[in-house]
Amino acid sequence: MEDLTFLSQEDLVNVGLLDFKLAQRAVEKGLVWHSTGKSRSGKVALVLDLPEEWKFNGLVAVNGSYSAMKYVGSRTTNKAIGLPRTIATIVLADKSTGVPLAMMEGAAISAIRTGCYAAVGLRYLGHQDRPNNVGIIGSSVMAKASLQAMVENYGQMIGDVFVYSKTRENREAFAKEASERFGIEVYALDNSRDVVRNSDVSITAITRDDEILVRDDDAREGATHIHIGGWGIDQKYTVRAAKEGKIYCDDWCAIKKRRELILSKAFYEDKISEKDIYGDIGSVINGSLPGREGLEPIHFYTVGLGELDLVMASELYEKAKEKGIGQKLKLWENDPVWLLQGY
Question: Which of 78, 88, 136, 137 is nearest to 112 (CA)?
Fold first, then answer.
């Protein structure tokens, strides 16, 4: 049996983890796979404490050649003991046999593929005839990954960039670092409403917030909102987008299961119906469904697909294998133990 390859975060960086153009191509490929049935995925989540965001998730996906399983443990109190809030591991296996091929650090992959959702929304749902002012609510990992994915892939579509987070120090640090890193002007604003008022494309890139941060009354004509994380969207805005504009999802069926999301609540409260969901974003990417067509309000809701972890993990594994990078491990040295013989 082929040895298992262990890939650390450093190994992944050495084979292109931080190449956001590579990541964007992989994410758009995964979304098209999902849309066209070339892959399948599922998710299970166990929440132990909601206020602390203490939870464990498992995402599994399969395509023609591989299967992948991402295990995620997360708790906000990790920071107090010097650990990241989220720790993730991905196991990549041969689809036909189930033999594990690689185990790799997964938090960076997860953050990057999540950020690429923002670039997808900008590219296909933003204004095509002029630069889009971009507003980001949040200043941590998802916000950083979102901005980097947008700038490095579709920077020509970006005008001014605005950011808000509740802590002044954090939003100002984000604006300063991003301006220096990407050579663009990023403005830290003192409230979320001004971010939305100034933005053609707004993004909620937070983990959870019960305060309404994105309001219908503040939205520009022809604005796009991209929901990557958080709960802070005015339901009125979502309902208006459904009735007067377009709602896109990465997976509507999966979103319906997340009853705490504003879009799901609107559906179960009979404020919107199935026919109000315009379609999935993969169909826009492959050209079978139109994206923005005018000045209609657009919302793009994401739940996070296992295919995106799978496509990134498989491409990084193949590059590592080609370059001989990674530590080789054996699941067993000799014949299987007696009780597994013949199994």
Answer: 88
